[in-house]
Structures are given as structure tokens and as C-alpha cells.
Amino acid sequence: MSMRAQIWLIFLAPLVLLGGLYAFGLTIPVPHLGRDYVVRVLLPEAGDPVDLPPIYGPQDRTRPLVVIDAGHGGKDPGASGAGYREKDIVLGLALALRDELVEQGGIRVALTREDDSFLVLEERPEIARRMGADLFVSIHADSAGEVEGVRGASIYTLSTRASSEAAARFAERENAADEVNGVRIEDQSDAVGDILVELSQRRVQQTSAEFADLITREGRGVLRFHPQERRAAALAVLRAPDVPAVLYESGFVSNPDDARQLTSPEGQRDFARVMARAIRIFFARQAGA
Q: Within a 10 A sphere around the Cβ of 76, how many other Cβ atoms?
């Protein structure tokens, strides 16, 4: 049970008890004024992780751990078009990848969300950090708006400077994902953002780029890529220090062909197999480094 739920129970339980007694015509003695009563409530130990997702696969902690992040969720549907919503498409892909990795064995897997839950943007890479993840994969789907014919997947890695004007616009939109009606849910200063980027050292960025290369290599001939398949942007979701991370833009929800493919069992299976192979090769290389 989450800490928030525990706190609500603390306040609501006495009211529910009194209401039940009253409904059955029962009374309870009222203590005399002037007497002191102490209620002790057990709270989690300070520093204990709260609400971390379950880990699937082997429980051997020496096995590598990949955290899969299905973008958006809950009141944040992400991009939409052709009758599809980004949050639904990417959750289907994330679950397919989890099942593929667990079935093959040898790799531990966790998801930032397994249902239609809303997560603040900064929570996603923070989950990977707190779990000691060896790789973080955030899955998204784009929209080209009214522009027709735009399709295909692309892979983003972190860069302090956007690789193109389109990548810069994408970063601006994704970094605002935890704003509702223009008000940030959890504000973060530019200074903190700069520190996070600085902590994402060159080695981590290089390793992330190596994994992105593996995705394109393994996906050639199986997945449909955008002409600009490799991009770099200052995306907040990739700023987990010391954790190699990529954002996989699976396709365009505004393109009916892309959307149908990404939501079909065949399309999800192709994605899961390609990504699982890339992940296994990546971990094998890291183990031999």
C-alpha cells in the first residue's frame, strides 16, 4: 500500500468506524475532558523506497535490469490521431517487450507503469536510478498533425543541444508533459536541469548511443524507420545520471498505417523481438567490456 493511501486510512478509518456504530444503534463511551490520549502510527522507515514497480524475471541481483517506460498515461494521453492515443499504443509495446524478455530469461525487467497510470515526468528516470537499472528505455509515439505521409520510428539519445529544429520542438513538447493548463505539477529550476545533464557524463551518453545503434541494426528490414532515424535532444526523461537511456519514438499516431501496425499483434511482436535482441546484445557487450 502506498504511503498516500496509508495516510488517508489514518484519517478515514475512525470516521468509518463511528458511522458503522451509529448505523447499528451502538454507542461508545466518550472520554472525560482533560485526559490525554496518544495514537501511535507505524510509518515506513526513513529512506525506504516507496512504490517502486515489481521486477520480473530472475531474482538474481547480479542479472542486468532494464526499466521500460511507457510514456504518458492517465490524464495525459500524449499524441493522438486516426482514432488512436499515444498512451495506449506505447503501453501495448512496453508490455509486449516485457513478456518477450521474461520469456527468454536471464534479464530482470521492470515497467514504470503497467496500466493507465499518470506519472510526473521526472519520476520516470528517477525510478530507474532508485532501482539501480542498467538500461532505461522510454517508449513514445509521435504526431505529425495535419502533415500527411510522415511515418516511421526514430531513436533519441540525450544531447545538451538538439540535433535539429524538429528535435528541439519535440524536446520542448515532451518536457512540458507534466504541465496541466500551463501550471507545472512539480517545478524544476533550470539550475537543477543543468546539474542533471552535467551528471549524465560523456561515457553514459556514448553508451546510450551504442545501444541506439543496436536498435537500428537489429531492426533493419523488420521495423519501419523514419528517414532521420537517429536524433539527439535535451529530453528530461533521458536525464537519469549514470543510467544509459534512449527514447524510442515508435511511429506516428497521425499515420493510420503506423498506428495499425503498432497496435497489431504482429507489429507488437516484431517490435518486442527486435528490441529484446538489441537489449541482450547490449548487455553482453557491457559484460565483456
A: 17
93 pLDDT higher than 80: yes
Mean pLDDT (the chain) is 82
Of 287, 285, 274, 254, whose CA–CA distance to 137 is shortest? 274
pTM for this one?
A: 0.75
Examine the pLDDT at 55 and tell me if it is beyond 70. Answer: yes
Amino acid occupying residue 198: E
Kindly list the domain boundaries of the chain, sorted by start residue: 65-288
Q: Per mean pLDDT, which range of 21-35, 114-128, 132-146, 167-181 is the poorest? A: 21-35
Could you please report the per-residue DSSP string of the chain?
--HHHHHHHHHHHHHHHHHHHHHTT---PPPPTT---------PPTT---SPPP-BS---TTS-EEEEEE--BTTB--SEETTEEHHHHHHHHHHHHHHHHHHH-SSEEEES-SSS----TTHHHHHHHHTT-SEEEEEEEE--TT--S---EEEEEE-SS-SSHHHHHHHHHHHTTTEETTEESS---HHHHHHHHHHS-HHHHHHHHHHHHHHHHHHTTTSPEEEEEEEEE--GGG--TTS-EEEEEEEETTSHHHHHHHHSHHHHHHHHHHHHHHHHHHHHHHHH-
For the 65-288 domain, the top CATH level (class) is: alpha beta
Whole-number Cα distances in Å, 163 to 97, 158, 168, 180, 265: 28, 10, 7, 28, 33
Beta-carbon contacts of 75 under 8 Å, excluding residues fewer than 6 positions away, are 118, 180
| Listed residue (263, 267, 247, 278) closest to 69, CA to CA | 247
